[in-house]
Design a protein that fits this description.
Blueprint lengths: L1 E11 L2 E10 L2 E6 L9 E4 L4 E4 L1 E6 L4 E2 L2 E2 L4 H10 L2 E9 L6 H12 L6 E7 L5 H12 L4 E5 L10 H13 L3 E5 L3 H13 L6 H5 L3 H18 L2 E4 L5 H11 L5 E6 H5 L23 H12 L5 E3 L7 H4 L19 H10 L6 H15 L17 E11 L18 E11 L2 E5 L2 E2 L17
Parallel strand pairs: 1-4, 1-5, 6-9, 9-10, 10-11, 11-12, 12-13, 13-14, 14-15
Antiparallel strand pairs: 1-2, 2-3, 5-16, 7-8, 16-17, 17-18, 18-19
Helix pairs in contact: 7-8
The structure holds N-(aminocarbonyl)-beta-alanine (URP) and zinc ion (ZN) (3 copies).
The site of one zinc ion has 4 residues, from loops.
């Protein structure tokens, strides 16, 4: 089946032109002006619309066991919601259980995602216990297309590794050409502050925020960059939120080190004033927490300076009932917020339509850079002949309002309730199939495929 998309304004990371795109099977077959429609082709008129590469969200947690519960979107509901928001590929985190193997964790996650995901997906492997056995498994993971290894420098006793494990992991990953990523915050310092607040009876969600001040992130970001520089491994900091941490990355560039940086949509758009005196702030209890307006300004500038390459979500939704686990103690609130569905439209409206970033930069940070860093380019992340026909059509003038009443995520509140946006995604193609059109899902459970990844090509 062929699809001909006519007269759209086709935007990639380095081009912008009015043209047609012809898909055949799962890939793009032709790009040009006045392309003739093959006899059996479905024709989509994109006049007045932008046509962009399908979004890639490299930071999502689907159906993840965490803090005594599971994140509430499954691979089915989460990838479906992602498609509605123009994200055609996600990278989810497999979590090694401390004391167990990487293989066991991978098998568990494959069991949840295979045959259920609606959109395309890949996995990062989170190494929570680096030991001689784990070391042996790294090359096997790389061979299977899992080329990025996540580390947590916080969540002691559950996910955190120490610096000795970090250096060992980096040395091994470097040997196999992979990438090490980090949740870069100082777990010991955070745990101390949490204990102090609890001892003082300071138990509301606001104290979650006060337990993770900027220094906890800046210190760990610098340490991570330093160890990565020493080992020579490709390094990537996930969900970077603040000026102090970005300055550590800036410092690393002065010795000609490249540390990739991902921020997330919430850190660009929301701030810590949402942590009020009541429990409502639990909706935004995530780690790291929301920061200050000056940090938002640093992050927007960082995107345009090329220091921040990726805008993800860290989608980790919990239903309101799950958030109640921490009603009497902020440290028990499951950390995370829902955003997988709205990253692209939020960034388009707040970034492109408000003139903070160019359309090309938008494509880079929502798709192309993640494809290059995580070894999926040019199959994913661009519009070129032979690439997967993952395409997003946006009506740039259409206004709409975010609400839990209309979203597709399996969570009963929205972290962006009432946000008014300019620019609406109207049609989404995934591997040559119309996946979403006019608000309706057109592909089913199991359509999503596992994407085997290669090495960094940035
Ligand atoms: O609060 C968050 N970020 N939850 C998900 C786990 C993580 O740290 O990324
Ligand atoms: Zn085991
Ligand atoms: Zn994290
Ligand atoms: Zn995360």
């Amino acid at each position: 089946m062929a699809i001909l998309i006519k007269n759209g304004r086709v935007i990639t990371a380095d081009s912008d032109s009015i043209c047609d795109i012809l898909t055949e099977g799962e890939t793009i077959a032709a790009i040009g002006r006045n392309l003739p429609a093959p006899a059996d082709a479905q024709v989509i008129d994109a006049t007045g619309k932008l046509v962009l590469p399908g979004g890639i969200d490299p930071h999502v947690h689907l159906d993840m066991p965490f803090m005594g519960t599971f994140s509430s979107d499954t691979h089915e509901t989460g990838t479906r919601a992602a498609l509605h928001g123009g994200t055609t590929t996600v990278i989810d985190f497999v979590l090694q259980k401390q004391g167990h193997s990487l293989r066991e964790a991978l098998t568990e996650w494959q069991g949840r995602a295979t045959g259920t995901a609606v959109g395309d997906y890949s996995f990062h492997m989170a190494v929570t216990d680096f030991n001689p056995g784990t070391r042996e498994e790294i090359k096997d993971m790389v061979a299977e297309g899992i080329t990025s290894f996540k580390t947590f420098m916080a969540y002691k006793g559950a996910l955190m590794i120490d610096d000795a494990q970090m250096v060992g992991l980096m040395q091994e990953v470097r040997k196999h050409g992979g990438l090490v990523t980090a949740h870069a915050t100082n777990g010991d310092l955070i745990d101390t502050l949490i204990a102090q607040h609890r001892a003082a009876g300071q138990l509301t969600p606001r104290y979650h925020y006060l337990s993770q001040p900027e220094v906890t992130e800046a210190e760990a970001s610098g340490r991570f960059a330093d160890i990565a520089n020493y080992t020579g491994v490709n390094a990537y900091i996930v969900h970077l939120t603040c000026e102090g941490a970005l300055n550590q990355v800036r410092r690393a560039t002065e010795r000609n080190q490249r540390v990739f940086v991902e921020t997330c949509i919430q850190y660009l758009l929301l701030d810590a004033s949402l942590y009020g005196e009541d429990f409502e702030g639990a909706k935004w209890v995530m780690s790291p927490p929301l920061r200050e307006p000056k940090d938002q300004a640093t992050l927007w500038a960082g995107i345009n300076q090329g220091l921040v390459q990726v805008v993800g979500t860290d989608h980790c939704p919990f239903r309101w009932e799950q958030k109640q686990m921490g009603r009497d103690d902020f440290s028990k609130i499951p950390n995370g917020h829902p955003a997988i569905e709205h990253r692209m439209e939020l960034l388009f409206s707040e970034g492109v339509m408000k003139g903070r970033i160019s359309p090309q930069r938008f494509v880079e940070v929502t798709s192309t850079n993640a494809a290059k860093i995580f070894g999926m380019f040019p199959r994913k992340g661009t519009i070129s002949i032979g690439a997967d026909a993952d395409l997003v059509l946006i009506d740039p003038k259409k206004k709409h309002t975010i609400s839990a009443a209309t979203h597709h995520m399996n969570v009963d509140y929205s972290a962006y309730e009432g946000h008014e946006l300019t620019g609406k995604i109207t049609t989404v193609l995934l591997r040559g199939q119309v996946a979403v059109d006019a608000g309706e899902t057109k592909v089913g459970r199991g359509y999503g495929q596992f994407i085997k990844r290669g090495k960094v090509s940035f």
